[in-house]
TrEMBL record:
Protein's recorded name: (apollo) hypothetical protein
One Gene Ontology MF term: zinc ion binding
Residue ranges occupied by any THAP-type domain in the UniProt entry: 1-80
Keywords: DNA-binding, Metal-binding, Zinc, Zinc-finger
InterPro entries on file: THAP_Znf
Superkingdom classification of source: Eukaryota
C-alpha cells in the first residue's frame, strides 16, 4: 500500500485486509476507511474486494499497543489498541449513524 516491503525492511510485517463477516464488520469498515477514505469504504462489497485482492497493510500503520508478538485480532490501523479505546471508537461510530 505505502510501498514498504519486508524485503526492504525486515522490521516490517504485512497484514492482509481482514475477511469481512458479521463479527468483524466494524473492523473491516475501519480498515477500509483508513486505506480508502475517498472510496466506498462503508460498502461490504468494497470491503470484500479488498480482502479478495489481498490488500495488505504494513505494521507501520499500527500502534505498538496493537501487538503482542502478533497483531491483535481487533487491531485497527492508526488506533491504539486498548480495549477501552476500541469501545470508545465503536460508540463514536454508532452515535454518528
Ligand atoms: Zn504501509
Amino acid at each position: 500500500m505505502c510501498g514498504s516491503s519486508p524485503s526492504k525492511d525486515s522490521s516490517i510485517t504485512l497484514y492482509r485486509f481482514p475477511k469481512p463477516g458479521t463479527r468483524n464488520a466494524l473492523r473491516c469498515e475501519l480498515w477500509a476507511k483508513y486505506c480508502f477514505p475517498n472510496e466506498a469504504w462503508s460498502s461490504p462489497k468494497f470491503q470484500e474486494e479488498l480482502h479478495l485482492k489481498h490488500k495488505m497493510l504494513c505494521s507501520k500503520h499500527f500502534e505498538s499497543t496493537c501487538f503482542n508478538e502478533k497483531l491483535f485480532r481487533t487491531a485497527v490501523p492508526g488506533v491504539q489498541c486498548y480495549k477501552e479505546n476500541l469501545q470508545l471508537l465503536i460508540n463514536a461510530i454508532w452515535h454518528k449513524m
